[in-house]
Write a structure and sequence with these properties.
With 456 residues, the chain is an alpha/beta fold. The protein has helices at 2-25, 59-62, 71-84, 110-113, 126-136, 170-178, 209-225, 247-257, 268-287, 320-323, 328-333, 373-385, 403-415, 426-432, 435-440, and strands at residues 49-50, 52-57, 88-94, 140-146, 149-152, 180-181, 184-185, 201-203, 230-234, 296-301, 339-342, 391-392, 395-397, 420-424, 447-448. Strands 12-11-10-9-4-3-2-14-13 form a nine-stranded parallel sheet. Strands 1-15 form a two-stranded parallel ribbon. The radius of gyration is 29 Å and the shape is globular. The chain starts with a helix and ends in an 8-residue tail after the last strand.
Length: 456
């Protein structure tokens, strides 16, 4: 095409020259009209904006206790999320070793059908439905699972799941595999007092290879049967600094040391615990991720990895690496995770307002909001510096009474070079009516999910 244009141009120039020579010879003036040459080459389209825009949809956001879940709620969620400009949904499908989808490995959650272990009637699969609806509007679905919880805590510690339910609850699988001591299941996390740890959840011990195998089987089942775009790990940590002193962990640590050794009897036990969690993450990355091209492996992690004294944070905040043996920076360093999402947001009940409904601006927050803007930015930059080429997708609370607080944190994440961000959670966005604020503000320009180019 270019060759033709050049030849045509040359022809016109030649004819013009001949005409000019004739006019000059005749002693007359002539107007010179050069041919209009149009390049028909179409300019390339601009590169689309790449930014991870995630929203957590917890099991509490789309189900109600004692009532069957409804496909209509998923329709609502997908519509609002897509209209706002999100491109990823972290959709919770596992809470306490139960299933919010059709599973042959774990029993139906009671929040789906209304009855633990019972399929919804009429039968439908919430995960399959979510994937179908979200993909139809260009939104990714990352199946979000609680990893170590096996049953509710609190009063439920004395009321384990029904052993007759099918499939057999993980609580009883661990009991069958590891037995009990003085009535305490050996496969659960124990405190230094010799009691089963019972906080918000009863948790399986990361020292159990049997538990690890089960978790990997759950991940493989999700990835091979559903067209999900990612697997998102939550509660991938110990229950506290005084766990886990269960017999399974003590036996395995003794084997590791080559001699009988009790938990926390030496400084190496804490690192051994970190290694157990790290090993679970690595197994997900090596045994689950390769089963589906392009699959993300991500995790929600504690907002402070380790406290740096120069930050001058008040009080004695809990630290992921020291309190919960969750060394999320090690996952980045070892390239066994695609992204982490530090949960840098206040409790769901906090909205940033005083008693009169006035927002408490930085730098004068109440003590109930620990994650003021300055601290939020410090933590994002700290994780970002440890990224090792992997993505940091910081968490932002959605419950603030002022949308300006959300927008400010989105802009701070962008300035820090983060690959995106995720908002917690859907129900707070809905309650505050922030979907339009996102669509007309920080999400006015459409964005695609960043690529994970390091995957084979």
């Amino acid at each position: 095409m270019k060759r033709a244009i050049l030849l045509l141009s040359a022809f016109f120039v030649l004819m013009l020259g001949l005409q000019t020579d004739e006019n000059v010879a005749a002693g007359t003036e002539t107007a010179v009209y050069l041919p209009l040459i149009i390049d028909s080459t179409t300019p390339p389209d601009p590169e689309p904006l790449a930014e991870f825009r995630g929203v957590w949809v917890t099991r509490f956001d789309w189900t109600s206790y004692g009532q069957p879940a409804s496909p209509a709620k998923i329709d609502e969620i997908v519509q609002n999320v897509a209209d706002a400009g999100f491109n990823v949904i972290f959709f919770q499908v596992r809470g306490i070793a139960d299933a919010y989808y059709e599973s042959s490995l774990e029993p139906w959650a009671d929040r789906v059908s209304g009855v633990y272990g019972q399929a919804p009637d009429p039968l439908w699969d919430p995960l399959a439905y979510m994937v179908e609806k979200a993909h139809a509007v260009g939104v990714q679905v990352h199946a979000y699972i609680n990893v170590y919880p096996v049953w509710n805590g609190g009063s439920f510690c004395d009321n384990p799941p029904d052993a007759s339910v099918t499939p057999t609850p993980l609580y009883h699988l661990l009991l069958n595999e590891h037995g009990s001591t003085n009535g305490q299941p050996n496969g659960l996390q124990w405190t230094t007092n010799g009691d089963v740890y019972c906080g918000a959840y009863m948790r399986g011990t990361p020292g159990s290879i049997f538990l690890d195998d089960h978790l990997i089987a759950v991940g493989q089942d999700l990835v091979t049967r559903y067209d999900i775009d990612g697997l998102h790990l939550d509660h991938i940590r110990y229950g506290g600094s005084n766990t886990s002193c269960d017999p399974v962990s003590e036996d395995r640590y003794s084997e590791f040391m080559g001699a009988p050794t009790a938990c926390f009897s030496d400084s190496g036990y804490a690192q051994w615990q970190r290694d157990q969690v790290n090993g679970t993450v690595r197994r997900f990355y090596e045994e689950v991720v390769p089963l589906k091209p392009g699959l993300w492996l991500s995790a929600a992690v504690w907002p402070i990895h380790e406290l740096d004294p120069v930050w001058n944070f008040p009080g004695s905040p809990q630290q992921g690496n020291l309190t919960y043996y969750q060394d999320s920076k090690a996952w980045l360093a070892s390239s066994t995770i695609d992204s982490i999402s530090p949960m840098i947001y206040p409790g769901s009940s906090y909205n940033g307002c005083d008693a009169d409904g006035n927002y408490l601006e930085d730098p004068a927050p109440t003590s109930t909001d620990y994650w003021i803007r300055d601290r939020w930015q410090i933590l994002v930059e700290d994780f970002q510096a440890a990224g090792n080429g992997r993505y940091v997708i910081p968490g932002i609370g959605a419950g603030y009474c002022s949308f300006a607080e959300i927008e400010a944190r989105i802009e701070m994440a962008r300035a820090a070079g983060a690959a995106g961000h995720a908002l917690f959670s859907y129900s707070s966005l809905l309650a505050n009516g922030y979907f339009d604020d996102l669509a007309n503000g920080p999400y006015a320009e459409t964005a695609i999910v960043p690529s994970i180019s390091w995957h084979p």
